[in-house]
């Protein structure tokens, strides 16, 4: 299973997430999901090129995309992301797809 998790820890912050998205603009997918295992929490799946997950150029907080309550789980394989959801959030499925980028 080839996934990466950007969770705000060193080497897994906004800058690395942004680079991954740039490198995988044409073939990458991103799950935007709250930390923890609460099945009622927000999550959404995007294409790596989606403008709604672009790193802002200015923000007062360091790592606003990966250092707060939400993490990014990425892969070039939708199957790998679904497997990650099954293992880590068994009550959720990747059916909340972004309307903007239609992954």
Spatial ordering of strands, largest sheet: 1-4-2-3
Radius of gyration: 13 Å
**Biggest sheet descriptor:** 4 strands, antiparallel
Order of helices and strands: EHEEEH
Give the total of domains. Answer: 1
Q: List unreliable stretches of 5+ residues.
A: none
Cα separation of the termini: 19 Å
The helix content is 10-25%
Structural class label:
alpha+beta
- Shape assignment: globular
Assess the beta-strand content as a share of residues: 15-25%
Mean pLDDT across all residues, rounded? 83
Structural description of this entry:
This protein is 20% helix and 19% strand. The protein has one domain (4-88). The protein starts with a strand and ends in a 15-residue tail after the last helix. The radius of gyration is 13 Å and the shape is globular. A hairpin with an 8-residue loop joins β2 and β3. With 103 residues, it is an alpha+beta fold. 27% of the residues are buried. The chain has a 4-stranded antiparallel β-sheet with strand order 1-4-2-3, sandwiched between helices.
Output the keywords.
103 residues; alpha+beta; four-stranded antiparallel β-sheet
Describe what is shown at a glance.
This protein is of the alpha+beta class and 103 residues long.
In terms of topology, how is this protein built?
Blueprint: E1 4-6, H1 14-23, E2 29-34, E3 43-47, E4 70-75, H2 78-88
Antiparallel strand pairs: 1-4, 2-3, 2-4
